[in-house]
From TrEMBL:
This is DNA 3'-5' helicase. The keyword Hydrolase applies. One of its GO terms (biological process) is recombinational repair. Keywords: ATP-binding, Helicase, Hydrolase, Isomerase, Nucleotide-binding. The keyword Hydrolase applies. Residues 32-326 form the UvrD-like helicase ATP-binding domain. It comes from the Bacteria. PROSITE patterns: UVRD_HELICASE_ATP_BIND (PS51198).
Amino acid sequence: MVISGERRNVQHRDGMERFRQGLTGPLSVPLDESQRRLVGVVTKGGGAYLIKGAAGTGKSTVLLHAIKSLRRDGVQPKSILYATYTKALVTTVEAAMKRDPFLNSKTITKKTVDAVVWEVAGMTWHSSETVVRDSDNRLVKPLTEAMEVVRASLNPTLRKTFGRLVDKKLSRHYLIEEIERTIIAQDLRKPSEYANLLRQGRITRLTEDERAFIWQIHLKFIGRLRDANLTTWARLRQKALRRVEDGKYLERFDAVFIDEAQDLEPTAMRLLVELCRKPEGGNRKIVLSADANQTIYGNGYSWVSIHPDLRLTGRSHSLTTNHQCTRQIVLAAESYLQGAELEDERVAEHHVYTGPLPIVWPVNSDKNEVTEIERFIRTAGKQLDLAFDQCAVLVPTRNRGKEIASALCLRGVKAQFMIRSEVDLAFPGVKVLTRHTAKGLEFPAVAVALFEQLKQSGTVPEELSERLLLERRVNHMAMTRAMQMLMVTVPGSREKGHFVGLAAPLWLQGGKNMGRNPNRP
């Protein structure tokens, strides 16, 4: 496999050397002028600030330098909370902070949002309830039981309407998502609140009667979960928020920095805001970073609707220079995202690096996909002088990740599949991660394995367009984890909804004209 394309800056040896030494991350490169100005803005006074920008523009960099500036300039809040969505990003930030004398401090708490939730909710590993995510199949049985209880309580006419909703229009998985991500995640307490809700980020329309049915299902569902000693992360976030609001949890921070805020549910965001101490006569010190088009859930909430202290008019600032991905990767990923954006206006970016065009490679079997991934990794090693540990494979599911890691090992490519809580960036081989786990990480060479997505795409027709938009945003996020070389494997018989936008001239087509220099934008 010969990857053609512009090579002028792709071998930026300073960046490669930093990666080899483990010095990547939000403090590994100096601030540019726009970032430096922004650090100055967000560290002055109180109130909330929002740092916006696409992947690779340095949002986390600005957040950490703002924390450093507060401490270096003598402001030194007594306590600072840095919170973000993924454990992997927290691990990266912790490693960066340990190397900086201003940030290596016990007064700075660095946690995932759910680790904060766990503590505030008063959970221990000996708690009787098992906490599960909304994708866990253990939720299907209590949901089904709740549905049948509601169905049995209805008269024959309403029972028919109810049946059309739960048996034909919405899948079990969608109903669980609706309860968890819409009702519970927004801490709705009355059926009227749900009836009048805009349901941001949800496309499937629900009538007033259908919402009334879902509200009843949700009440019975909670009871069935309790009977089974199960709870969900959405419920736990709600519980943590209530404990803070009711004065049952008293610890507060002088400043709160929230990275990748676009992925947080409203209850989690409200919790973090409430954990920030509000000075008498002053404003809470809160700094957020976010890119709506990187969200892996597609919430689309407005900040002020989440909490009145998040009034960000005139306090939002955009970063426009990409320091992570090559120009070719950014443009190709943006072309794929078109039509799935949550923000209407994408910020025009400047690009520090250029490199080869990304490749989209059609495959016809699981084995064929592994063959092309292995070839890509070995080619990246030769062309960019990369070791296996500088490469990553991103997958839709855990099972596929385990299969690919095992298959690569059998072919002589050291690889390991890593779950969210066990990401080891020091592992001397290829990191195989789910797309969600890779959030916030970066690797010189990335293969995004999407052959399995064809198998996963079937769903109730009413939900299909919504599911496709969400999948495209997740895929876009995965693509932008690549710093220099990117390959995406797709089914040979592509489904239009998933794979539109992977076309020339921004994408090289695998197996076609691979030996010549393609047209470049």
